[in-house]
Fold:
Amino acid sequence: MTDTRTVSVLGTGIMGAAMARNLARAGHPVRAWNRTREKAEPLAADGIEIADTPVEAVTDADVVLTMLYDGPAALDVMREAAPGLRPGVAWVQSTTAGIEAIGELAGFAREHELVFFDAPVLGTRQPAEAGQLTVLAAGPGEGRAAVAPVFDAVGARTVWTGEDGAAGSATRLKLVANSWVIAVTAATGEVLALSQALDVDPQSFFDLIAGGPLDMGYLRAKAGLVLNDQLSPPQFGVATAAKDARLIVQAGERNGVRLDVAVASAERLERAAAQGHGDEDMVAAYFASFDEKRED
Structure:
């Protein structure tokens, strides 16, 4: 095989669209599909072929990349695509699907003789658009040459976590990382809400922690989105973060661990979504500190 792969991208939301563009820019022929075709059509300007069906998207592909909402969505779409899948095709499963769903997805891959890679990514809209994601990957060593050019096109770094994608080691690491991201984001919103309630200028808090061990670039970046009213377009949406938070809670429960912060974060995110912030950046969970959505 050459370093060029024909890649099918199933799911062209914030992350999938950016990954498809970077694959095309790297010289890979790309076919993209999305349940709502209008969301995929702008990719045609980047030389990406827009498919009408999952079957059309995956036919003759060397690599199939799924970046869908959750595990059940990924499985449903791959079932639709099944008539077009060839044995031996590499399936890069990048949806944050959760531990239980990874087993089901890997079972589908075995049934259809696909080479399965559990490959979620770390990063949001900006690093995705810049091709600077971190790919967390688990899969057979003998198949890695087929997917390495794909990972190189979408990410700045690939972290291999194991040889067996079905074991979900990459997904497990992703959930651990996301638990930290979601907790910090929730804390950022609460700091801003408490500052407002106590009539404290948030900048005085940032000045207080500047340069010390409590300072964090992520805190400042997320706080800036709220303070500067830059919640749209989202780097990572409230509704999707709520889904990920629930996957984290479920993983803890099934392994005998109470994750009180994750539970509270999931509730905050769900409350913010119910207030109308579901399509805004995840730090819009800030609004969950108030009884109603606040308009500036």
DSSP finds twelve helices and nine strands in the chain. The CA atoms of residues 136 and 261 lie 24 Å apart. The two ends are 56 Å apart (CA to CA). The mean pLDDT is 96.
